[in-house]
Amino acid sequence: MKSDMDPLMVQISPDHHQSLPSAYTFTKPKSKPSIPFLLLILTSLVSVAFTLGLIFLLYPILFSGWNWTISSYRYSVVIDAGSSGSRVHVFRYWFQSGKPVYDFSGDNYANLKLNPGLSSYADHPEEASVSVTKLVEFAKGRVPKASLKRSDIRLMATAGMRLLEVDVQEQILDVVRRVLRSSGFKFRDEWASVISGSDEGIYAWVTANYALGSLGGDPLKTTGIVELGGASAQVTFVSSENVPPEFLRTLSYGNVSYKIYSHSFLHLGQNEAHEKLWASLHNSAANSPEDVVVTDPCTPKGDNLDKNSHTDSFEEGRLTGSLQAAGNFTKCRSATYAMLQEGNEKCPYKHCSIGSTFTPDLQGHFLATSNFYYTSKFFELDEKDWLAEMIPAGKRYCKEKWSELKAEHPTTKEEYLLGYCFSSAYIISMLHDSLGFALDDGRIEFASKAGEKDIPLEWALGAFILKTSSATFDYAGLSRKMLG
């Protein structure tokens, strides 16, 4: 109930100590002011009124607008700590009509990647501080000093860190948290963590569908993501099938709820899978008689299989003797397919495409990102028929001699050149032989950016979008609001 007396009103009473005259006497002026003098006064009053009116009209533009531009910008920082390196993303955004507005271009978005990844510091956790400090300094250079304390910073580690023992993960994260606590940014210890592979897939899915304008729309018109990283591979898409709860994520954005299949295949990223295959071949060679030669079909002929091309388990320059590089795409494809199918006979679900992991039937359009993109661009494949073209491109590459490949691609790092025979066969084994994409399937295309604005397909953008929006999604089985 409103009070009868407005607390902001103050009554003013006359001063009773001052006497008032009982009558007033008016004296008639002796002469009237001249007309020019009256015009001068009138002109001055009009001028003042005009000036005040102009200031009143322009004030919101000259002053309020300027303050809006400076003070209403928000900043957020996400560090993607991947297996091969860590990338810092700096976002600038603002609110309009109560909703966040994003622009991933120009001064509103910046990123920097440094190698190696955090997992490489497993034996010396303290050294991780150098890399993280450099990333923090880059971010601080993009955020005004006055906004640092209000701007959050998060570090999310992925498959490289997931491969480490939990106690080693925590040792590295403790170092990271110490750096972030002293960064000047807004930070809480729980904001530096190792995220699950399925959540990484969800974030990538959000990025793609935001870029394509389908986020918040019909679930059956969304785009799925197939990502081939260094240590893991993710498959994420909306499925109308009954998905087992361990593979199901629920995301609500706007007024739409999405039932999403998301799974990360740890150890089946491109680098991890290649190492696994080579280690298996080396063990076979080591356990074979001296006169038996085991061939590596995924390495170009002429490479001596030293530690620089594969692993640090052996002395530099040492020839294995019973293991030789053969460079055969067809045999490499067979070897990679066998690796992807390990454990398939133990599949407890109605069908498993890779190993013993449930995968529903493919639905809708898909974007193939990360190493799918890099390998396709290296071979200069056509975006429309890239899967069909991958086979002849891989066959030509695998059968070439190592010395000739180095001469043909003098500016490409040797570690990448050594991997393209394997990756071309691995991509076909995963997408076509295992997941079931037809070679001429127009539903899947490789990409590193999407949408009319060429938004980068980085999962960190999806994490940022969910954090700053009112979206909710089930995270590790619990429904929680993604707010900063």
Automatic annotation (TrEMBL):
One of its GO terms (molecular function) is apyrase activity. PROSITE patterns: GDA1_CD39_NTPASE (PS01238). The active site is at residue 200. ATP binds at residues 230-234. Keywords: ATP-binding, Hydrolase, Membrane, Nucleotide-binding, Transmembrane, Transmembrane helix. One of its GO terms (cellular component) is membrane. The chain crosses the membrane at residues 37-62. It comes from the Eukaryota. It catalyses: a ribonucleoside 5'-triphosphate + 2 H2O = a ribonucleoside 5'-phosphate + 2 phosphate + 2 H(+). Its EC number is 3.6.1.5. The keyword Transmembrane helix applies. GO terms for biological process: nucleoside diphosphate catabolic process. It holds the Pfam family GDA1_CD39. Belongs to the GDA1/CD39 NTPase family. PANTHER family: ADENOSINE/GUANOSINE DIPHOSPHATASE, APYRASE. This is apyrase.
